[in-house]
User: Fold these one by one.
Assistant:
Number 1:
Amino acid sequence: MHNLRVHIDSNSGFCFGVVYAIEMAEDMLNERGYLYCLGDIVHNDEEVARLTRKGLRIIQHEELKNLRDEYVLIRAHGEPPSTYQLALENNLHLIDASCPVVLKLQNRIKTSYDKKEQVFIYGKHGHAEVLGLLGQTNNEAVVFENMEELLQHELPENITLYSQTTKSTDNFYRIKNTLEARGHTVDANDTICRQVSNRDEALRRFAAQYDQIVFVSGTKSSNGKVLYQVCKDTNP
């Protein structure tokens, strides 16, 4: 019989923003029996199914337009200003579980936009967090997923650069350095969540210790994809 040893990374699990959103949802479910949630509360099918059994009702933005006089949870990804305006018009009670890191990023992007800066966001097209960030600029900021895509745009001399909170820190600074090498002045705002970025080095050390790594994540999770790549690069 093989002497199989299985170790679980002590830092694995949901980030604090997701844990906070789940706790808020459970509190409201215990109080009211049901609660609407705008989009999946977390990119984890089992957890979504568990909360659905407790009364969580997942809806999308089109359904939100027809909802009135109800309680709706805003998940950790955050939402654009248009969602809050719709809630006022439809008398919806928002339970705002937006991650504090995301809210701070939204405010910084809005400040840059109000100052007429050219805002560029390193992030995933269509991602809920990115849509919330875009909303702070009246959807005028440029979103790009890699350097090749960014270079397809006519770039200004001065660039204000932000990042989705779960992107790769290494890639962010690689983009910054490439732009500066091409003669652009870059105001680089490292807005990547430190709970995500700080996991990188610890995860590399963890992955290097073992013969084989099994990485478990929701396939829609941007954070999961970044951390999976860290494991794969370290222990292919």
Number 2:
Amino acid sequence: MSEKIKYCVVDAGNTRVKVVDFENDEIVGHQQIALEDLEKIKLVLSAKKLTTSILSSVLDKEKLKWVSDLLEPNVVLSNQTPLPISIDAYETPNTLGADRIANAVAAHYYSNTDHALVIDIGTCIKFDLVLKDKYQGGSIAPGYAMRLKAMHEFTGALPLLELEDVTPLIGRTTKKAMLSGVINGIQAEIEGFIASYTQQYQPLTIFLTGGDHKRFDKELKNSIFAEDNLTVKGLHIILKYNV
């Protein structure tokens, strides 16, 4: 029986820290810790010091150093990190988010075609294209919460809304009209982008991920692969590539 190799992936975002444990290529543990819960972060990360690990972060330098000192990771992901794909086509690699890098790496690794497209639906909606082993770039747009908040903050009368399970096409109240504009608008936006990409790049494997992707995956075609853990799997691939 082959030896099980343990890896740890830490993804430090703006509001929470994800800590994901792998044995070989299988996820065996998953924690999400609120960023303000410093004691729990300290407890969890200190216990991972001896594990082969990677840190991905959008934190400022001070917080990044604090997390890095706790974990002592083998790899801190940046645009300088050696990758199994090229990002040379991107004109501003120093501004390229770690999540977009990780998603592109995972899409390339798991794609069953030469080309891959990632749709990441979260705070922002991001499209990222990989042609063979070369990352090309994509697009970034506001997510649903940001759109609802913008309508409230930039007008005098529109309320701040939460999403509902059912969103009609025709809103017969102002509230329902706002929800229709956001949710059905995002749906049409995604479908339009997919149509444009598939027309220009064939064959193309499409991946759907992000914290809000489940609001939309049922409406999209079955040929799209929904994957909750695409980003952390990409980080895991990058870690193995570097150790």
Number 3:
Amino acid sequence: MSHTQLATVDFHGQALTVITANGQRLVAMKPICEGIGLQWEAQLKRMKRDEVLSTCMSMVDIQMPPDDQRRQVTCLPLEYLNGWLFGIDVSRCREAIRPTLIQYKRECYAALAAYWQQGKAADAPAPSLLRRRWLVSFDRNGKEVVTAVPQDACVLTLPDFLKALAVDGDLGVTGDELFEFAIAALANLRRRSAYMTKRLSELQPVQLKL
């Protein structure tokens, strides 16, 4: 596929690389299987046996981080990842991630029950991954980075943040939180001042001959 881009998404505590190719978001399955402690070959066979997943698997020629060369990787569309995760055997995963996966599967069961009982997918509670908010940004190398944003958080540009600080009531923070921010800002300024003072003291005076 051409015109591929990479982005990093937080997926249940795991750094997940999403491939955008021709407008479709794909997930390389081998890294996520290894990340949660599943045997890749067994999962590949399971996807090939699945009546739905087998129809949407694709191969992408791409260089995945931290690899140093391009390879053919097996991918699923991002929207099918939840269904694949719902069908895995939790007992085969790393012990540290099992509670998160069990909670996610409980949410999937509740969503399916709500759908069949109420007859409308819109009325079913979405799994936690779908209810989350995401911030899309770009790092210094131009790579797209997708970061999960807490439900009680607000996202502001730096100028808007400084402006909101100057207006009483425009920023949803308590007095204690604002005080902690001020202390942290002063400590940062103190470190910067000490650094600049040290740099200036290291500069040798230059004598000019007239």
Number 4:
Amino acid sequence: MTTLSHGKETCAMPLAAPRLKRFALFGDLPPVLLDAVAQVCQRRVYAKGESVAAQGDPAAHFFLVEYGLVKVYRASPDGREQTLHLVEGGQSFAEAAALSLADFPASAVALSDAAVILVPKKPFEALLAAHADLARAMIASQAKWLRRLLDLTSGMSFGDVASRLARWLVVAAERDGAAFTDDAVIELKQKKTVIAGQLHTTPESLSRALARFEADGLLRREGKAVRVLDAARLSALAEPSSP
């Protein structure tokens, strides 16, 4: 059984194993093991702006976003925020924190109404110890998360706003499963303030960089998306060694 809560309303309901099947972490598990995982999970619906996890709280769960958008971020002592990841439906987060740390090293907030499945630490650890297939899936999930962090670090640590934006566009295309080529269309699914936060810049600087890319013939803005016009030049800008 699981708990579905939204605001002040709470009711008990079973979590159907097929809900877990869409997540890469559980997609290849046999039905019996999938059922075992489903039995220990909880499901919660968060309203836009509601906290999903708080930095410093006990890391008692990790999270599967069923639908909606969740921002994972760290806050500095002076109140500045660094967006680490935007988690969409079908993606997970905080696996490593829940299984290896006492407390969450980052916070998470719902950027839209979102349904999130909470996987509790202790029951899941018992399943990991008993099932090698699940342990292998967890290792693969963590490898993917590490790559995301390396992509973010690379984009944040080198170059000016233009090079960071170019890197963000390359990573966004890969995230959507598209090749970064001429005529590729990249949806800007988040608000400009969120994207700017990921690039460690301001929304105004982001707008200027996009306008400059468009004027230089690198891309064309099409509503809430951009169309790549010169993938080779954008890829060159995205490289950390670019001047």
